[in-house]
Amino acid sequence: MEEAKERSLHFIEQIIEEDLKSGKHASIITRFPPEPNGFLHIGHAKSICLNFGLAQKYGGVTNLRFDDTNPTKEDTVYVNSILEDVKWLGFEWEGEPRFTSDYFDILYNFAVKLIQKGLAYVDDQSAEEIASQKGTPTEPGKESPFRNRTVEENLELFGDMKSGKYREGEKVLRAKIDMAHSNMHMRDPLLYRIKHAAHHRTGNDWCIYPMYDFAHGQSDSIEEITHSLCTLEFEVHRPLYNWLIEHLEIYPSRQIEFARLNLNYTIMSKRKLLSLVEQKAVDGWDDPRMPTISGLRRRGYTPESIRNFSERVGIAKRNNVIDVGFLEFSVREHLNRIAPRVMAVLNPLRLVISNYDEGKVEMLETINNPEDESMGSRELPFSRELWIEQDDFMKEAPGKKYFRLAPGCSVRLKSAYIITCDGFDEDENGNVTTVYASYHADSKSGSDTSGIKAKGTIHWVSCQHAFDAEVRLYDRLFNDENPDGHKDREFMEFLNPDSLSIVQNCKLEPGLASAKPGDGFQFQRLGYFSVDNKYSLPGKPVFNRTVTLKDGWKK
Ligand code: ATP
Ligand code: MG
């Protein structure tokens, strides 16, 4: 991307360049470490683009590692969706995908090593008791009565934990560090807990599982990750990771924290996204209103637009909130360059061109994308009866600045003729049922000699050639800027009841009948639309509105 070359280096790039220059590393290895307990969201996309992007930029590699240490929440369905999403974003991981569960033996041996060094012990207390002894940031914690067990006793008890002798919660393994440490994470943190649960990969091999803090950093070391990038919450965990690296004498991966991506009007916690799915507030993880990568894909976002967005929001050291409009801007900008323009009428009103021969059909040429000549042109059938948008007609022109159709007004039909409105029919309720107009035969687009000035241009579809389709219009899923930020109210209370409207019997130009899932278009004057990958049938596409157009056609 052009801008990427122009901007100055961000702090992580500076660190990497120094490390390469000083010879600390000959090349870099980064990793993307998702927990397979949900679908990836736009925040993960930022992390993916950062990790894979840095390796690309500096000629290194990136591992994809599933951080699967919690058997009760993880699932192969999530693993597969994550693989698909990372690939779709355009990235390739080094070798096979890796799993923290592949390292369970190594991690177990690490724990044994700590016990042998007198740096870990088995605690018989309950989670509540342990928590009550933690102290506060200003007061030291209390040492466990089991803290001074002998190495032999700890080895035996830990072995018994592993072989299934104890119930869940009966015992845990803790690091023996310092109960008075100013950093709460250093006050004898838990390393292993008992869970009699089947794991999505290791089945019933294990009934003890490492805590995240004993798995994540160690897995980085096992893979010799040079730069381990994570979000700011983990800054306070770093002293513990470094303590483990020192005492286990393992590869010293360097952890660097950056600010997570936050978007307004958006929820970005997998747990909360899961509850939207479970409570059926949305149509699955890939609902086009979801901030998930699969939702954005179904909505019509392109990988390039998401990569550009991630690049542009930049890398910060302080948390901030990005306007979701900026994400929309990125996709609009990309689709403006690549999307073919087509004609579609969402709220049809019949227009009869009284002086056009009945039965006559003319094929009119129209260009596919004014932004890109190489996309060529196509022919559209034009006939006496056309569908136009209801919004493009008024019974009376409201003033001089009105550029659409009303009795006595002239407009250009896009890529066709100038017409002048002669009148309309209405029903007993005053609803307009048909509009009548005359066309000016010498005003054809491209060879207009009529001298008539039409102030506006409107789109249309020939009635006899149109095909009917369902179009889904989306609005923000939440109508509050910070749905998660209210003390006394649940984020669910801020769901926007109008976030989806399904419009049936839209009139589309005939060529669109063969559009395939994922195909994207600009419906002229209406927005960008993409063929839904769930509800479309062959020959019967359903369209999702990806994003509205910023402007209609300006004169
Ligand atoms: P969530 O809080 O949404 O459940 P998580 O951090 O628990 O996300 P992980 O699967 O552990 O989810 O995340 C994988 C990687 O993605 C981590 O390195 C994490 O730091 C990063 N990540 C998660 N959310 C964001 C975000 N909003 N912005 C940037 N990176 C993120
Ligand atoms: Mg996490």
Helical content stands at 25-40%
User: What is the overall number of helices?
Assistant: 13
CATH class of the largest domain: Alpha Beta
For the largest beta-sheet, the strand count, sense and barrel status come to:
7 strands, mixed
Just name the CATH architecture of the largest domain. 3-Layer(aba) Sandwich
Strand line-up across the major sheet = 10-23-24-25-21-22-11
Kindly provide the radius of gyration, computed on alpha-carbon positions and rounded to a whole number of angstroms.
31 Å
CATH fold group of the largest domain: Rossmann fold
N/C terminus separation: 32 Å
Task: Provide the list of bound ligands, each named once.
Answer: adenosine-5'-triphosphate, magnesium ion
Bin the strand percentage.
15-25%
The CATH superfamily of the largest domain appears as HUPs
Assign an overall shape. Answer: elongated
Structural class: alpha/beta
Low-confidence stretches: 551-555
Task: Give the integer mean of the pLDDT values.
Answer: 96
* Number of spatially distinct domains: 3
- Total number of β-strand segments? 25
What features would you describe in this structure?
The longest helix is centred in the first third of the chain and has 16 residues, at 42-57. A hairpin with a 3-residue loop joins strand 23 (520-523) and strand 24. The chain has helices spanning 2-6, 11-21, 42-57, 76-88, 104-116, 127-132, 151-162, 212-222, 238-248, 270-278, 293-299, 303-313, 324-338; strands spanning 29-32, 61-66, 98-99, 120-123, 172-175, 190-194, 208-210, 227-231, 254-258, 341-342, 344-345, 348-353, 362-367, 377-382, 385-389, 410-413, 418-426, 432-439, 456-458, 461-462, 467-474, 500-508, 520-523, 527-531, 542-547. Residues 551-555 have low confidence and may be disordered. Helix 3 packs across helix 12 (303-313), helix 8 crosses helix 9 and helix 12 (303-313) packs across helix 13 (324-338). The protein has 555 residues and is of the alpha/beta class. The protein folds into three domains: 11-258, HUPs (Rossmann fold), CATH 3.40.50; 270-340 and 469-547, Ribosomal Protein L25, Chain P (Beta Barrel), CATH 2.40.240.10; 344-459, Ribosomal Protein L25, Chain P (Beta Barrel). The strands form six sheets. Strands 10-23-24-25-21-22-11 form a seven-stranded mixed sheet. Strands 19-16-17-18-12-15-20 form a seven-stranded mixed sheet, with no helix packed on it. Strands 4-5-6-7 form a four-stranded antiparallel sheet. 25% of the residues lie in helices and 22% in strands. The chain is elongated and about 100 Å long. The structure holds adenosine-5'-triphosphate (ATP) and magnesium ion (MG). Adenosine-5'-triphosphate binds next to helix 3 and strand 8.
